Amino acid sequence: MKHKLLSALLAFTLTTPVFAADSGRTVENFNFGWKFHAGDTCGAPDRSFNDSRWTPVSLPHDFQISQPWVAPAADEKADMTNSAANTRSRLSARAFKEMGAGWYRKTFRADPSWKGRRVLLDFEGIMLTGDVYFNGSRVGGTDYGYLGFEADITPLIDFDGDNIVAVRADTGKPENSRWYTGGGLYRNVNLIVTDPRLHFTRHPLRITTPDVSDSSASVVIDAELTNAIKDYKEIRLLAEITDADGQTVSSRTSTLPFNRRQRTNEYRVDSLRIASPRLWDCDSPHLYTLSLTLFAPDGKVADRISARLSAYASSSFLLNSASVSTAKNCSSKASPTTTRSVPSEPQPTRQRSRNASEYSKTSVSTTSAAPTTPTANSSWTSATATASSWSTNSMTNGRARTPEAARNGWNNGPSTCQNGSDVTATTPR
C-alpha cells in the first residue's frame, strides 16, 4: 500500500508580509537602514555613539566576503589527522578568510500604536555568534549561527526619541566549520508586534497528516501559544484551510481547555479534512494555506498566523502514482559558497552552479565584486576595494568574552570596554 502524506513548504514558517490590522499581529521587514563597521569598537551599543562614518548596508549582509584572501604561510603544513575537518592549512576550512568581528547599528522611531503591545526583534540568524543590544542594554544573542531567536524589546522602547539596535557578530575560530560560512547578519530580521498576553510563540506549528488520498486528506494541527489572561479558561481558535484561489476548503472553530500550570503550552488544536484535494505535482504545483486565528475573551482577534501547504501522495520515488525523475542538490544554507547572504527565495540550481565571478553579478550580497582567486604562483590579492578596511587590528579570534583568543596565539588578552558593553578588542599576530 502506497504511503500517503501531506507536505509543508517553507517548514510551516510564518508568512513574512505585514498582516492586516485586524490580524492581531504585525510583521515588519527590518532589513533596511542598517550601518556596518568592520572590527571591534568600544561604545557601539550606546545610544549616543556616533556611527556617521559607518557603511550603510541592507540585509542579508555578509561582511566576510569583503575581506582579503589569506595565503597559507610558507612554513604551514597540512593537518591530515582529521579528514572530516577539511584542514589543509590554518584557514582552508573557512575559504582562506581571516576570522573577525563586526558591528551593525540601526536607528528607528517607534510607532505610537505599539504602546501597550508586545514588540519583538526576530533574528533569523547571526553568523557565527552574536549579541544584540537595544538602547544600550543587551536583550539577546546566539552562540550558534544556524539558529534564529527573538528578543523582547517592549520595556526598553522610547516613544519620544530615537531607538538604537546594535548587533555584534563574530565568526569565531577557523576550526568551527568545514566550509565558508560568511559572517554577520546574513539572514532576515523582522520586527513583530503582538498582543502582550495572548499570542502564538515563535515557530509554533506542528502539522501531521495521517492519510492522504485522491478523495480526501486529513490535517492534524498542533500549536504552541501563550495565555497570560488569568480568567480565560477556555481558549477559542479558528483553523481554516484555503486553496490557491482563496476559497475555503475546510474550517472549524475549537475550544481548548487552558492549562493554568504553565502560561506557554502546546495544544492539539484540531483535525481538519480536505475533500478531493488538488494534489501537488511538477506540472501543477498547487498550494493550500492554513490559517490559525486566536480569539481574545471579548471575541476580538488576538493573533493570527498562517503557513502554506502542498498535498501529494508519495511512495518511494513515485509522485501521485507516477514515476518522477528528480534532480538533487546538496547546497548548505541554500546559497553558493561564494557568499552566505541567503536570498529570500531559493535561487535556481543552474544559477548556483555559476562561477564566483559570474554569480557575484546577481548575488544578494552587498559586495559589488567577486573575490580574487589565487594565481599559479600563490599570489593573493584583496577581494574587493572595501577589503582595505579590514586591517589586522580589526580582526578577532574566537568568542570575545573568553580568554580563548589569548590561548590561540593572539598578542593581547581580552579587554572590557569601560562603557559597560563588555566588548573585547584583540590584536592578532
- What is the H-and-E element order? EEEEEEEEEEEEEEEEEEEEHHH
> How many whole angstroms does the radius of gyration measure?
25 Å
- Secondary structure class reads mainly beta
The biggest sheet, with number of strands, parallel, antiparallel or mixed sense and barrel status, is: 7 strands, antiparallel
- As a percent range, the share of strand residues is 25-35%
Average predicted confidence as pLDDT: 75
Instruction: Give the helix proportion (percent range).
Output: under 10%
**What general form does the structure show?**
globular
Tally of helical segments: 3
The count of strands amounts to 20
Distance from first to last alpha carbon:
65 Å
Low-confidence stretches: 1-21, 334-416, 418-429
Give an overview in words.
- By secondary structure, the chain is mainly β.
- 3% of the residues lie in helices and 34% in strands.
- It is built from 3 helices and 20 strands.
- Strands 1, 14, 15, 17, 18, 19 and 20 form a 7-stranded antiparallel sheet that branches. A 6-stranded antiparallel sheet has the order 4-3-5-10-7-8, with no helix packed on it.
- The N terminus and C terminus are likely disordered.
